[in-house]
Write a structure and sequence with these properties.
Elements lengths: L6 H13 L2 H8 L3 H15 L4 E2 L7 E2 L1 H28 L5 E7 L4 H14 L4 E7 L3 H8 L4 E4 L9 E9 L1 E6 L13 H5 L3 E4 L18 E4 L2 H9 L5 E4 H10 L2 E3 L10 E8 L6 H14 L5 H12 L9
Parallel strand pairs: 3-4, 3-5, 8-9
Antiparallel strand pairs: 1-2, 5-12, 6-12, 7-10, 7-11
């Protein structure tokens, strides 16, 4: 018959191994030492192998089998603690899982900080994260794929949605340092960019079908995502707008150049927390919205962002906007 140790036996075994003695384990578990010894003996009998070396030693020492069992026992008991925390949370109304859709316009450092703290605050809550462009966030919330969305422009009015502005971001027109537009030593006109390839992200959600934002060139290459657009612009294959938070390091190093193009609208891009009215967020999702609100309130505006980069780059390498 296969051994079938109980969780209590594993807890006693782990406590003896971690405290270093049967007497110390009895004090930690508030049980008589004889009970501790009896429990370990029963466990060893089930497993048909000794877990501790007792002869000739003042303190019990793990055998090779005991060392191998220790990690298994620790993992099983940790899983039990996670299950207990999840059950406790469910009884208190805590979600088992939070599904969130986040726009690429949300600065990645803010996203990382919020999710790191979320993991610490809600260790028993699973996370389902979707990151995308343009209308994807709203579509994910409307379809029920996401409980909450943290994203940009309201692409259509929907009475079933609750929208709350919690921050801002902005796009900047850029090109690689070797691109022809980066070599023009003056502010750019529409005539300068019309015949140059502009890289444009296509909205997979379909909510912006037939609508273009800041598309100024006659020649366009359309790509499916921001990461591809970023790579192609860095590679000198065209110019286009990218979220400031993504290109900060490229602008600092000079790998990308900010294009001084008045025709390109560079106003603040609002970021909203969105959800369906019929699906109010639970404690964990509500906490996440508040955390993003706090982080995004600290993000710089366009002028502060440009000033900070110019300070880093120095007077010899200012951004083109300056």
């Amino acid at each position: 018959m296969l051994p079938n140790p109980t969780l209590d036996q594993l807890q006693v075994f782990l406590t003896v191994a971690e405290t270093g003695s049967f007497s110390a384990a009895s004090r930690v578990l508030n049980r008589a030492q004889s009970v501790i010894s009896y429990t370990i003996a029963n466990l060893e009998a089930q497993l048909e192998m000794p877990l501790f070396e007792r002869s000739g030693a003042r303190q019990p020492k793990l055998t090779d089998a005991g060392k191998a069992m220790l990690e298994d026992a620790r993992r099983l008991l940790t899983d039990l603690q996670v299950m207990r925390a999840r059950i406790k949370g469910l009884k208190e109304g805590l979600e088992a899982e939070v599904s969130v859709a986040i726009s690429v316009m949300v600065p990645s450092p803010a996203t990382v900080d919020v999710l790191r703290e979320f993991r610490e605050q809600f260790p028993s809550v699973a996370l389902n994260l979707t990151v995308g462009e343009l209308g994807m966030v709203m579509e994910a919330v409307l379809s029920g794929k996401a409980t909450i969305g943290i994203g940009g422009a309201v692409l259509k009015q929907d009475d079933s949605m609750l929208m709350e502005k919690i921050g801002h971001s902005f796009m900047m027109p850029v090109a690689s340092r070797n691109h022809p537009l980066a070599q023009i030593g003056r502010p750019l006109t529409l005539g300068d960019v019309r015949e140059e390839v502009q890289l444009v992200v296509t909205d997979a959600s379909g909510l912006t079908k037939g609508r273009d934002f800041n598309v100024l060139s006659y020649k366009t290459w359309r790509v499916s995502d921001i990461a591809t657009k970023h790579a192609l612009i860095r590679g000198g294959l065209g110019w286009g707008g990218l979220p400031a938070s993504i290109i900060r390091d490229d602008l600092t190093s000079g790998a990308l150049v900010h294009l001084d193009l008045e025709a390109y609208e560079q106003g603040e891009y609002p970021i909203y927390a969105m959800r369906r009215l019929a699906n109010p967020p639970g404690p964990a999702a509500a906490w996440m919205i508040d955390a993003f609100r706090t982080r995004l309130s600290q993000c710089p505006n366009h002028a502060d962002f440009t000033a900070a980069l110019n300070e880093i780059r120095g007077p010899e390498m200012p951004l083109a906007a300056e």
